[in-house]
Amino acid sequence: MTSKQTIGDKIKHLRTTKRLTQSELAGDDLTKSMLSQIENGRALPSMRSLQILAARLGVDAGYFLEEEQSVDLARLVRDIEARLKQKEYHSIVSAVKPLMDGKLPMTVDAARLMGFYVNACYYTGTEGGEEAIRRAVEIYERFNLYVESAKVQYLAYALLFTQSRYAESLELILRVREEYMSKKVGNDFLFEIDLHYAHSVTLSALGDYEGSRAAALAAIALSREEGVYYLADHLYRMLSNLALMSGNLEEAKLHLDKARLFARFTEDEQSIQLVHLAEIRLANVEQHYEEALVLGQQHQAEGSRYESSRCLQMGIALYYLGRDEEALASLSKVTLPDDAYHPLDRAGVFTSYAYKAKIYARQGKMEEARQQSQIAYERVQQYPPSVYSRLIENTYRELHP
């Protein structure tokens, strides 16, 4: 049966999710002390109190009275959530996928489990994420948990992105935002920043760089207004890259400086590495090739997921310094990462073929040069115009008059 502790946990979870204080939720109908006792499982609310709390939290009162399917499911949800934090995506898929064949009940715990599963599907390339989203949305909307429904639908954006369905991804983000804004109870600023971030990323994938910049700035403005600075390192790094694409070096440096500060503040190793790579690229754009080599040597990390990006920037610097054989050796190590879903990231990788073509042409090896430029040219035909595609196309035209 549903216990006092279960009801209290659900009330507390929803209250913290919606960023309400106990005083704000209690209002004039309950004392803060009574609400605290309810949340801690020491008191059971009356049906009238439960209905009042449910209305303020935007759910049906029946949600709190829902019987637990089993203690095992709650324990599994906690276990999978811990694995997600440790990025153990393959183990999550192995544990949850067998349960997706109609074995999960229509409970909120099951919906949360499916949300975690969708994340793991994205990172492992496993099919089945769309069905998990559909079932989780059905559960959340059954209990009028519309914000939670919007959040799990948002996960579909990443799945669409991995399939290069950028226009559909944009349509989904706009629809989820509209539903969230019309049905939200309170403000979930972190989720709103997530939506701005996804909007910016998707617009840049479609070649709308001004729109992408505006969406990123909107996310930073909201972050600053609420004093949370969520995703600030990623947003400033994105803005720096967009400024480089437009040739605005001063703005690129300004945004990269801010990205560096936030990356160091968060102590996120992935963000720190990405900022370092952005510094190498900026040095190349500024034609400070010796500096780019020094930065690249400092960033050596054999086996790192960013090793390929480092080799690309090192190869570019070596090419412009006229050190052709070293440049070819470095560029030959460049591979397309499994998680490079953004067309700009992919086009950047394919510039390695264009630079190898330039080196071969400089050495008089025209057949090899044309082969390399042909590969690069064919692979970027479906991508939006960018500095990368322009480099590739110009190289191709030079070698195929």
What does this structure look like?
The protein is mostly helical and 401 residues long. Among the domains are: 64 residues, Orthogonal Bundle (434 Repressor (Amino-terminal Domain)); 116 residues; 80 residues, Tetratricopeptide repeat domain (Serine Threonine Protein Phosphatase 5, Tetratricopeptide repeat), CATH 1.25.40.10. It is built from 22 helices and no strands. The protein is elongated and about 85 Å long. It starts with a helix and ends with a helix. The relative contact order is 0.05.
Q: Can you give keywords for this protein?
A:
22 helices; 401 residues; single chain; Serine Threonine Protein Phosphatase 5, Tetratricopeptide repeat; mainly alpha; elongated; 434 Repressor (Amino-terminal Domain)
Question: Any chance you could write out the topology, listing elements then pairs?
Answer:
Blueprint: H1 4-17, H2 22-26, H3 32-39, H4 47-57, H5 62-65, H6 71-85, H7 89-96, H8 108-124, H9 129-142, H10 146-162, H11 166-183, H12 189-205, H13 209-226, H14 232-245, H15 249-266, H16 269-285, H17 289-298, H18 307-320, H19 324-331, H20 343-362, H21 366-379, H22 387-399
Low-confidence stretches: none
Large-scale geometry: elongated
Find the count of extended strands (DSSP E, 2+ residues): 0
H-E order: HHHHHHHHHHHHHHHHHHHHHH
Query: What is the C-alpha radius of gyration, as a whole number of Å?
Result: 25 Å
Distance between the termini: 78 Å
Strand content: under 5%
Query: Given the helix and strand composition, which structural class is it?
Result: mainly alpha
Mean pLDDT: 89
Largest sheet: none
Number of helices: 22
Portion of residues within helices: over 70%
